[in-house]
């Protein structure tokens, strides 16, 4: 397997209830993070990792996502006529990022079900899954490292992040046991996974965040995985089976200590916008001055 062959799957069929009423008519994946919708950051991350074929799993009222990645000749023409080449370049760039496909999930039955819907498109190759609630800073190439570890070992690779114990109930959590042979120091052998455990029942403080590189064998497991927590087909349950298989390549967890922005929570979404804007050359200097003045006035 090479990076040129690997495809990406972006599940985007959720209802976005935490952001109502903003998401009543707008997909949560299209909520702006500074001046780009959240899902564009995710697509750009996949492209930066060498992925050219991307499948977005959508649900009802998600046409805005496909519209965003289409070309808009009338808008492009007007910008060109005005000589607004900077904005024109940004508009065109979003249309030329990758070969993007769309598939309806139908009834939302969980992340595992959304991933299973990608089977026909992905085929027998390994693939990456990127969740749109987690944005990874482009300066920290997490997905590239995950693909490299999968190519090296053949294992399913999941992204892990150390969190405070009082936050662990918000995440799927990994039980780990040492560094796999030949792996980098920040990779762990995953022996088990628990979906959103109580603090006292968590096997570690290593939370599963929204990046996966998976072998095609996970589809067979998902086919027979019954609904789990919340009545949904959980990807975590399928990964648990891969981790428990003594004859398989197993599951490796790559501990990510880079910059991650959570856009799935209202407060964290606001923080993400501020952090990303503050780091930009065009917005950061003025914003940082204003933030300091604002903070001092509270």
Question: In a few lines, what is going on in this structure?
Answer:
This protein has helices spanning 38-48, 63-69, 73-82, 85-95, 111-116, 119-122, 142-153, 218-223, 235-244, 266-278, 284-297; strands at residues 7-12, 32-33, 36-37, 53-58, 99-104, 127-130, 134-136, 156-162, 172-176, 187-195, 206-214, 251-255, 260-262. By secondary structure, the protein is α/β, with parallel strands linked by helices.
Description:
The protein is α/β, with parallel strands linked by helices and 298 residues long. It contains 11 helices and 13 strands. The chain has helices at 38-48, 63-69, 73-82, 85-95, 111-116, 119-122, 142-153, 218-223, 235-244, 266-278, 284-297, and strands at 7-12, 32-33, 36-37, 53-58, 99-104, 127-130, 134-136, 156-162, 172-176, 187-195, 206-214, 251-255, 260-262. It has a 9-stranded mixed sheet. The chain has a two-stranded antiparallel ribbon with strand order 2-3. Helix 3 (73-82) packs antiparallel against helix 4. The protein is globular and about 65 Å long. The termini are far apart. The mean pLDDT is 90.
Structural descriptors:
two-stranded antiparallel ribbon; 35% helix; globular; nine-stranded mixed β-sheet; alpha/beta; 22% strand; Spore Coat Polysaccharide Biosynthesis Protein SpsA, Chain A
